[in-house]
Design goal:
The complex is a heterodimer. Chain A has helices spanning about 15-25, 35-40, 80-85, 85-90, 90-95, 105-110, 110-120, 125-130, 150, 230-235, 240-255, 265-285, 285-290; strands spanning about 5-10, 30, 50-55, 65, 70-75, 135-140, 145-150, 155, 160, 165-175, 180-190, 200-205, 210-220, 225. By secondary structure, chain A is an alpha+beta fold. The mean pLDDT of chain A is about 95. Chain B has a five-stranded mixed sheet. The model of chain B has no long low-confidence stretch (mean pLDDT about 95). The chains are: A alpha+beta, B alpha+beta. The interface of A and B includes residues 9, 10, 52 and 103 of A.
């Protein structure tokens, strides 16, 4: 099907964009890569009166490491994030996550800003932001604010962004990335590129077999990405062995309550989440470390 | 700045400058097929999943159905017609022919462009890497094995030459 009628404008600065958001309000929709919005338009599930194309605003681009953060501009494409040397060195979790996002051509045009602003519960970047304690930068005529990922994702397609705010960037705290830092990403979907049935993003520090600073984010299992705090607690400060891994998986099973939907019943998503956590932790067991 | 419903664009398609006034709701694959007359890019799902509309925009594999024609302004578009004319996919085309990697041909232009981009980035892919790469291009006829065979065959021939 074809997109409905709308009008189109392409501001060249953030200020111009904010003026447009102000004057058109809820009639306007921002378009960047269009990889999520265009399907909605083509399927006539969305019908904004005005499209504001932000792809030529230069200050929304860039991947910069500075003062303890890596800041990724909203317009950065998924493929470019994955191939960025800065990201490969400082945020390797993102490199692991990227190949799971849709398909090659989608990754060449889709942007991280779009993914975060849309907040699909099965999306990869929001879960990575949770695991990495990222902050989302929102700009409006009222000023700039940073919202922690834990507070930003509020429901299905619901975020802390107000209608007059532009999602400008996301920044990730990076401390001392070293050999002790562990990152793991996994996702199960029926076919490569399909929406996840369940997925996880895990980061922690490992001293010997002891895990600390554990952050485990799950996606596809709720109306937003979730930190599995019970499971994290079951691992925090412990030496990882079969018993602790089992406890972590059991804790995950207890704290998840995925919604039932026509495609997958709640129990199935919970089971898939547990399976991928079990597989992920198996990769971290000491025997595995010595084997590699 | 006033939003508009029709916009003048200037774009390069297969090396040729094209100027046109386009309705803003027109997507790029429809622009290429109906306005320019390049029908090699095909329309399947219009939701980005099937990959039949895949073209190259500024050298990037792109879904023509998920791009607005106005977003092609000041960009370089390459379609299967351009890639064919350039000769750069001749090895792949021969391999596809030799190994029966097409039947109805609907997915084929996009498969060729995708495969060419894979071999440009990764000249010696494994079977698994080829399968992974073309997972965004659906084929209803061949069952994919012959397509993967053809891509690997073309890679091997490139390597040998």
């Amino acid at each position: 099907m074809k997109a409905p009628t709308f009008s189109y404008v392409k501001p060249l600065t953030i200020e111009a964009c904010l003026e447009l958001l102000d004057s058109h309000g809820e009639d306007a929709q921002i378009i960047a890569g269009g990889q999520s919005l265009m399907p909605l338009l083509n399927l006539r599930l969305a019908a904004p009166a005005v499209l504001i194309d932000i792809t030529d605003i230069p200050t929304l681009k860039g991947i910069i490491q500075d003062a303890g953060y890596v800041k990724i501009g909203a317009l950065e494409r998924h493929a470019d994030i994955a191939s960025s040397v800065t990201v490969q060195q400082a945020l390797p979790l993102l490199v692991d996550a990227a190949p799971h996002i849709a398909h090659v051509a989608i990754r060449e045009q889709g942007t991280i800003g779009g993914s975060l602003a849309l907040a699909d519960p099965a999306a990869e970047w929001p879960a990575c932001c949770l695991a990495l304690n990222a902050e989302i930068e929102l700009i409006s005529k009222r000023g700039t604010r940073h919202v922690a990922a834990e507070d930003f994702f509020q429901g299905i397609y619901e975020t802390a962004r107000q209608p007059d705010e532009l999602l400008a960037a996301v920044r990730f705290p990076v401390g001392t990335e070293n050999d002790d830092t562990v990152h793991l990403f996994d996702e199960i979907a029926r076919r490569r590129g399909d929406f996840a049935i369940a997925g996880l993003a895990l980061t922690c520090r490992r001293g010997g077999a002891v895990l600390t600073g554990v952050r485990l984010a799950l996606f596809g299992v709720a109306d937003r990405p979730v930190l599995a705090k019970g499971s994290m607690a079951a691992m925090e400060g412990y030496e990882l062995d079969d018993r602790i891994a089992e406890a972590a998986v059991a804790a995950l099973s207890a704290e998840l309550n995925p919604p039932d939907d026509p495609a997958y019943p709640s129990g199935y998503r919970r089971r898939v989440a547990c399976v991928i956590l079990k597989r992920a932790l198996a990769k971290l067991l000491p025997e595995q470390l010595h084997a590699t | 700045m006033q939003p508009e419903t029709h916009i003048q664009i200037s774009t390069t398609v297969n090396g040729e400058r094209v100027k046109a006034e386009v309705p803003v709701r027109l997507n790029l694959v429809d622009f290429l097929r109906h306005t320019i007359g390049l029908t090699g890019a095909h329309v399947g799902c219009e939701a980005g999943a099937c990959g039949a509309c895949t073209i190259l925009v500024d050298g990037r594999l792109t879904r023509g159905c998920l791009t607005l024609a106005v977003q092609a302004d000041n960009k370089n578009i390459e379609t299967i017609e351009g890639a064919d004319a350039s000769g750069r996919i001749a090895g792949l085309q021969k391999a596809f022919h030799r190994l029966n990697a097409l039947q109805c041909g609907y997915c084929t232009p996009a498969m060729l462009l995708a495969a060419a981009e894979l071999l440009r980035q990764n000249p010696k892919p494994s079977r698994e890497e080829v399968r992974e790469w073309i997972s965004g291009n659906f084929c209803r006829c061949t069952g994919y094995q012959s397509i993967v065979d053809a891509v690997l065959d073309a890679a091997h021939s490139e390597e040998a030459s």
